[in-house]
């Protein structure tokens, strides 16, 4: 919210943090808060070691399509995790995103959407 209100900068991490939340949610669901703390500590240590070794420029060797693919993949994961709430579908049971996507798609047949009414045009003279 703060970033969208006040703008960002070239060192802002709000976008990558949003994508990283998907990974952290899976870690927390599987290993609990203790696992999340360990993963956070390890990520910090790795970042410090890369900084001390002056390997920050290694990011330029990751091709743009790989970065775009990662971003698009995270977007699909976020979308499929949220669409059941958006459409008011029942809770999804499945261990993978493919299973949960299939369950959501099958739920559309059982959902009741409001009927669409065609507009009535009235021409006044």
Major sheet summary line: none
The amount of beta strand, in percent, is: under 5%
Averaged pLDDT: 75
Distance between the termini: 50 Å
Number of helices: 4
List the topology elements.
Blueprint: H1 2-6, H2 14-52, H3 64-87, H4 97-110
Helix pairs in contact: 3-4
Walk me through this protein's architecture.
- It contains 4 helices and no strands.
- Among the domains are: 16-61; 63-97.
- It is extended.
- The mean pLDDT is 75.
- The chain is 66% helix and 0% strand.
- The protein starts with a helix and ends in a 15-residue tail after the last helix.
- The protein has 125 residues and is mostly helical.
- The longest helix has 39 residues, at 14-52.
- Helix 3 (64-87) runs parallel beside helix 4.
Features:
125 residues, mainly alpha, 4 helices, extended
